[in-house]
Amino acid sequence: MTVQPHLDGTIPTPTIPAARRKAEDYETWVDEVWPAYIAAAASGRTFTFAEIAEEHRLPEPPDSHMWGRLATLLREAGYTRRVSWACSPRPTTHRSGVRTWKGTAAARRAAA
């Protein structure tokens, strides 16, 4: 692939994010990503799962459908609640709609 330099001769920063590592199995993946989502829930901010994954450079699950299972586990454990919808920031989703989440009061108390 050819890269067009800027007028000053510098090479532009790539706009395509680097590929992330893919986890070997579901349990190992959950153990690795869980703390980042617990911290996001405790922060009180509204977030998408993709935003947290990108911020923390979290690995991809063995199967992409496992993101939904993780969201369900966090909600059922009482750490998160659904807030609204947003456009996904992930390039592979073509800005499709995704849920936004926020931590519960219990998540904030657990972090204190």
Secondary structure: helix percent? 25-40%
Number of helices: 4
CATH hierarchy class name:
Mainly Alpha
CATH topology: Arc Repressor Mutant, subunit A
End-to-end CA span: 50 Å
How many strands in all?
3
What is the annotated CATH architecture?
Orthogonal Bundle
Order of helices and strands: HEHHEEH
Global shape? globular
Number of domains: 1
- Estimated radius of gyration: 17 Å
Main sheet characteristics? 3 strands, antiparallel
Q: Which stretches are poorly predicted, pLDDT < 50 over at least 5 residues? A: none
Strand order of the largest sheet: 1-3-2
Beta-strand fraction estimate: 15-25%
Instruction: State the secondary-structure class.
Output: alpha+beta
Mean pLDDT: 86
Write the layout of secondary structure elements.
Layout: H1 26-43, E1 46-47, H2 49-55, H3 66-76, E2 80-87, E3 97-103, H4 105-111
Antiparallel strand pairs: 1-3, 2-3
Characterization of the model:
The protein has four helices and three strands; from the N terminus they run H-E-H-H-E-E-H. With 112 residues, it is of the alpha+beta class. The chain has a single domain (26-111), classed as Arc Repressor Mutant, subunit A (Orthogonal Bundle). The longest helix has 18 residues, at 26-43. The mean pLDDT is 86.
Name the features.
alpha+beta, three-stranded antiparallel β-sheet, 4 helices, globular, Arc Repressor Mutant, subunit A, 112 residues
